[in-house]
């Protein structure tokens, strides 16, 4: 019974028998650029279609000591902008002819190294990192195995990387609030301390102070909806409340906005203006109508794949750097003057 249920893929030998050709003719038919007579090709393709045959890419990868796998390493890939970026990366890699493999990992050195060893063990062509701050050993292991790395959302001296224009957008948010007459500013980030979140917080606070505005900061344990609520509770607990808040991502902004409207009964934007970052689809929902900086996940994904292709073509090239500047999408939570 076990033998009967065992998975049995259609083989090239079966195709050859049905087509009445040699096994090598089948191989040449499915090898780009190989020489095969048109009549033979037609018979092979007809037999393959009838049997449901597909080339064994796994076997070809073993022979070449590599695969078309590309690892996407991420923490909580289902949340916020990261979910859309992961989807865009998968689509771009598939279009390139790769097989994306997602590894949902933590941010500790041990977890990241375990993910990397898994990808190297499966001879992944490259790794794209969306989360965490990889340790030096991560890059050393990749270099010893000749595996390209592309890092998104942080700068790493030993890897190609793609970053958003965090500081440019954050300074623009502070200036827009100030020009609109808002003087009690706040920025909400996260205690997680990721490079992108930290850059946005620091740039906003620096710009606000240089303008002479009052500025406060707050943040929950993570960069999610619940942390937005926690930060709002801290900022609006009493005393002088901010009249404008810049949130380091949209998920934080959603939590903050719900708290402001439901718990404090303040109006947005009349009493409190809010700007987010990412422009996830929920930002356009009528319940939020969030003014936010748009990171285009498709653009970020394509830039990452371009860096990957450049690295594969020239393994000794100096690290590549792509910076994508977000655009402000104006909705009802704040309308600049």
TrEMBL record:
GO terms for molecular function: DNA-binding transcription factor activity; transcription cis-regulatory region binding. It comes from the Bacteria. InterPro entries: HTH_LacI, LacI/GalR-like_sensor, Lambda_DNA-bd_dom_sf, Peripla_BP_I. It comes from Neorhizobium galegae bv. orientalis str. HAMBI 540. Keywords: DNA-binding, Repressor, Transcription, Transcription regulation. Residues 10-64 form the HTH lacI-type domain. It holds the Pfam family Peripla_BP_3. This is LacI family transcription regulator. PROSITE patterns: HTH_LACI_2 (PS50932).
